[in-house]
Amino acid sequence: MGRFTFTMIKPDAFAKGHTGAILSRIQEAGFRIAALKLTRLSPEKAAAFYAVHRERPFYESLVQFMSSGPVVAAILEKDNAVEDFRKLIGATDPAKAEANTIRKLYAESVERNAIHGSDSDENARIECDFFFSALERF
Ligand code: CMP
Q: Which residues have CB under 6 Å of ligand 1?
């Protein structure tokens, strides 16, 4: 189990002004912010980030949504980071997410679901490298 995970506050949650509340919950849950940036994905970058989903029916819509406005990307550090973070954010579909999870509180729909969290240590490493250079990590 790795010490790091990658997260991204998605355009829906950023646009609604939930960034501060979400970062606060993340820190209160014991995660240390090791890297942080406000950025915007081009459609090409969003397509590359979600390339594993390219055969899915929702892929084009997901790419359009994820490139529609700024996102807040971060690397988070904690013991058992990937698994604990997925518990904190809740199920992909907010209708199925447990009470008090970030998606239950802030997500609009299965696509506009407020926040991303890596699903494995291997993907966490790939996703951290996608957004952050060594100089941007603390
Ligand atoms: P995320 O955890 O970032 O990983 C893939 C994303 O695809 C997911 O969050 C949602 O934003 C989106 N997604 C997953 N399943 C669906 C679905 N059934 N319909 C629309 N979007 C989806």
A: 53, 58, 62, 92, 110-111, 113, 116
- pTM of whole model > 0.70? yes
Give the closest residue (by CA) to ligand 1 atom 2. 116
Helix (H, G, I), strand (E, B) or coil at 86: helix
Ligand 1: distance of its center to the CA of 135 in Å?
30
CATH numbers and ranges of domains, the chain: 4-136 (3.30.70.141)
Structure token digits, residue 69: 């406005």
Catalytic site includes residue 18: no
Q: What is the pLDDT along the chain (138 residues), one digit of tens a residue?
A: 899 999 999 999 999 999 999 999 999 999 999 999 999 999 999 999 999 999 999 999 999 999 999 999 999 999 999 999 999 999 999 999 999 999 999 999 999 999 999 999 999 999 999 999 999 999
Report the greatest alpha carbon distance in the chain. Answer: 39
DSSP 66-123: HTSS-EEEEEEE-TTHHHHHHHHH--SSGGGSPTTSHHHHH--SSSS-SEEE-SSHHH
